[in-house]
Amino acid sequence: MPQHIKRLISVFAIFIVLFLVMRQVLKPSSFGKLGHFRADAIYENTLKPMHYTIADSCTKCHKSVRAEKDKGFHKRLKCEVCHGPGLKHSLFAEQFKGKELPDSLKLYKPGERKDCGVCHQKNAARIKIQFDTINTTMVHQIDLAEHNPPDLKANEPANCIDCHNPHQP
Amino acid sequence: MEDHLQNLYEVLSKVEGYVYPNEIELNWSILIVLYPYITGLVAGAFILASLERIFKIKVLKPTYGIALLTAFSFMLVATMPLVSHLGKPLRAYEIMITPHSSSAMAIFGFVYLWYLMVVLFLEIWFDYRRDMVIWGNESKGVKRFLYKLLSLWTTDISPKAVALDDRIGYIVTVIGIPSAFLLHGYVGFIFGSIKANPWWSTVLMPVIFLFSAMVSGIALVMLIYIVLTKVRKQLIDMECLDTIAKYLFYILVIDFALEGLDQIHRIYVAEESFEALHKLVFGKLFYTLFIYQGLLGTVVPLLTLGTLQFYKPKASIRKIIYIILPVLVLMGIFFMRWNVVIGGQLFSKSFYGYTTFKTGLIGMEGYLMAATWLIIPFLILSFLLWLLPPWNKIETSHE
Question: Domains in chain A, please, with CATH?
């Protein structure tokens, strides 16, 4: 075999050995434990702070609201859809029973037109169907500019919740 | 909690109609546009080089070395847009040391190493070995050391050894052609196999990527050849340029036909996604698809090159055409990648809404970062052309 081919093969052999050594040394220690990925990635994700809770943890204290909501169009919505992430609130608010809640534990109380508009503002891309049963999965579309517009002269906001009970609209 | 909602309102202002929450932000940005673009240039340049070597098209000789070195320079940078997009450079090697055949992404390590090390590196090494030995003996200092190192301190330049180099180089090129097809077909495969996305999911995707890759690679080498010859104050070999233009024309015709076929098929079968895609194409992608990719990047070059096949204006005019056309083609293929990568993420998989793509000038995913990864291959190429000038090589016939 000519000299230069021998050298080339040696270089490739060195490269392959280096590659295998590198693979042993550099491969993350948890790689392959659960499959062809780094198992620690799952553990690292569990370390991220949580913000949301489960619906049942709201029902623990707010039974009547839940009962009311379960009869209306909003029965499938989690409380946090409108009130924002509530894990902290659900864990610590009970300690302040009868007292003023600190701001960090307060949840958002939506009540303005823009809040309901997030889902209900008329949007051509949403499917329009007749709303006659409580079991519909579609969202009622309202033209906020036309539907009971606020009287600007009288400075009256005309919020949706003036007429509709958000828990049972 | 007001912040929480304020943020939501801002996010929703980017959106038209109805989109799922995870579709508002585009996860694959301009750097992911660059990745198929750069690998395409590699595959295309390599295929142009192999035209000379395997298919024995001797007129292309002046571009052979340039095409190989171009392919190599761009290959070295091909992964960098991905690395900077992922933002974890310290983990970037993991994809290389843990390849796996079960996922198109995880097999990347195999495909890349095979093409870079076995095909490009070996072909260039065997092609330049004799010259490196000679140049190593003639030069001094760092350059001498580099030549010695690159030729692995070999000295044998007997006709027998050189003939063997040539033979092995030929075999490597023969293996290289399907490998180049594999490399770029693979990149198209990643998109084509995402069945949840109707803009991507087509079996034609690897083939379209492949032909557009050849188009862009050939155009790039054509441009580099003209610029280099001008810089070196040499005479441009018009016969060579005419031949490259001819091949560019052929492959552009195939590319255009394939992309046309893909679109006609979409229009004819008109699946449930059709209306959403129709709006996308005539709305957010109108300029990038119809004007930049279609008109300027494909139709104009196609008509011009087609005309040149039976009507040849004088050399000085052809030269100007051969400078403008590759630029148009390169821009067109860039926007082809853009339309695939960005376009595929602009519409909601609910088919009821669209989002917006905005990227800044600076930042890890900005335009400057993208420009950097496009400029670096040219710097590498300049270095390689200084170290291994193809025009100083001893003529070999590649028989």
Answer: 3-46 (no CATH), 49-109 (1.10.287), 110-169 (no CATH)
Judging contacts by C-beta atoms under 8 Å, the chain B residues touching residue A38 are: 94
Contacts of B352 in chain A (CB under 8 A): 125-127
Residues 81-120 in A contacting B (C-alpha not used; CB under 8 Å): 83-85, 106-108, 110, 114-115, 118
Domain boundaries defined on chain B: 26-351+360-380
Tell me: pLDDT of B9 over 80.
no
Task: Please name the CATH architecture into which domain B26-351+360-380 falls.
Answer: Up-down Bundle (1.20)
Which chain A residues touch B90 with a CB distance below 8 Å? none
Q: Find the range with the poorest average confidence among A42-51, A134-143, B236-245, B267-276.
A: A134-143
Residue pLDDT, tens place only, B158-210:
899 999 999 999 999 999 888 888 888 888 999 999 988 999 999 999 999 99
Both tokens of B341, joined, read 């990568």
Q: Which parts of chain B fold into alpha helices (H)?
A: 2-12, 30-53, 61-77, 80-86, 94-97, 108-113, 122-138, 141-150, 159-192, 205-231, 238-269, 274-282, 300-310, 315-341, 343-346, 367-387
Q: Which of A58-72, B6-20, B147-161 has the lowest mean pLDDT?
A: B6-20
Tokens of B101: 């055949």
Q: What angle is formed at CA B43 by the lines to CA B40 and CA B48, rounded to 5 degrees?
A: 120
Query: Over 80: is that where the pLDDT of B32 sits?
Result: yes
What is residue A53's three-state secondary structure? coil
- Residue B362 is classified by DSSP as S
Question: What pLDDT is recorded for position B1?
Answer: 47
- pLDDT, tens only, A31-57: 889 988 889 999 999 999 999 998 889
**A1–B contact, CB cutoff 8 A:** no
Q: Which helix (H) or strand (E) holds A69?
A: helix A63-69
Give chain B positions within 8 Å (CB) of A3.
154-156
Judge contact between B242 and B318, C-beta under 8 A.
yes
Q: How far is B258 from chain A (nearest CA, A)?
A: 33
Nearest-by-Cβ selection for B97 from A22, A36, A127:
A22
Average pLDDT over residues B57-61: 88
Q: A15 — contact with chain B (CB < 8 Å)?
A: yes
* pLDDT value for B364: 82
Position A122 scores a pLDDT of 80
SS3 A156: strand
Which residues from chain A sit within 8 angstroms of residue B5, using beta carbons? 84, 108, 110, 115, 118
Does A15 sit within 8 Å of B156, measured CB to CB? no
Question: Cβ(B38)–Cβ(B77) under 8 Å?
Answer: yes
Kindly state whether A124 is in contact with chain B, defined as any CB-CB distance less than 8 angstroms.
yes
pTM: 0.84
Min Cα distance A70 → chain B (Å) is: 25
pLDDT reading at B330 higher than 60: yes
Q: CB contact, 8 Å: A33 with chain B?
A: no
Chain B contact present for A122, CB below 8 A? no
